[in-house]
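Just curious. Invent one:
>
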Amino acid sequence: MSELVKRHLVSKVKEALQTSRIVNIVGPRQSGKSTLVKYQLPIAEYLTMDSDSIRNSMHADAYAHLRSLADKHKATQLPIVLDEVQRLPEISLALKRIVDEDNKKGQFLLTGSADVFGLVGSGDSLAGRVHTLLLRPLSVAEINNAGPCQLLDAVEKAPEAIMSALPGIKQYSRATAIELILRGGYPEIRVLADRQRIERYSSYIDSIIIKDVPIVSPVRKPELLRRLIDQLAARTAQELNMSNLCNAVGARKETVESWVDTLERVCLVLRLPSWAPSAAKRAVHWPKLHFLDTGCAAALRNETQASFDFSADPAAFGAMLETFVHQELEKILPLASSHWRLAHWRSDNAEIDIVAECPGRSLALFEIKATSSVTQSDFKSIDWFLKDGPGKAYAARSVGFVVYLGDQLLTMGPNRICLPLSAFWSY
């Protein structure tokens, strides 16, 4: 077996096992869920619902099977792993019965490419008994064997202390950044050569349509769903305009909305909501749509290094870079000291690519630039947002970042920071 990549989420899984009876790890197919639970955590026993015999046994009498396992391993104080549980949604009722009989923490550790407790046929959500964590594809910090990015924790420090809390920046090149975007974070796929990687991602999407999507929602026209996925890859980092999307796919609005919801539930895409000072107003504008992995999106768009050279369309690379930064921020949310949420913001005259908010009226604003230098004008939207715009009540505890392809960590006035892309893997 090749050398394991240490997953940063391991610490959060161990923490959750100390506080919850069931821990549920959800993540896209091939993101490394099985490897994490089998090789990076102490466990009592591992069973996968991909096994016909185990799945049939569970289907016949899940309670008896799980009760026997729980009694067998009670003395070990270690969790029993049930892998690919989305293939047997009805198992939730048996789990509920067992953990209600014994409220000991860390009894079961589940994994799946869709949240089993939200599926039709699950029978019960197990509210109050389960802690769900999302395992995304590898972060760039994990790929580079670096520590978890602590950027959001730095924002919570006093404004004058932020720069000293940021890491020493690792050197990199534009070509390195492009390569990271193209390869993505799926452990087995990212190491392949361009053609093999593109072909493998195409097969990967087919397997999601065939195996994962029907568990969440039946699809009568898989060829249209595949067309939708290709369109979403082409539109990553754009606002989700349903009318335009329906015209491009050739399907009704209700159908496309249902499919986008399903693709989000099987961890292929993510909708980034709009931000407003009042939570009641945050659903007014369209959300942005981001692919969960730039490697997958790039393959579906048939992109290679040549696609992003200096003579190519800069908008295409800019969108992929924005999705890349969004992904890296999403991956550090579970590891941050506070509960941060991400959104985007747009008005008629300005926009902020990513707005990160945590309790205490703190904001981290991110503008992403596919350039190797930054000017004062790159902070124009951030400055207006905090001085005269909807973020002025947050200004005292907010920081604006322009993420760019240079390698110098610089300031351009109070709480205005030029952040090299490699900050995400420099800790």
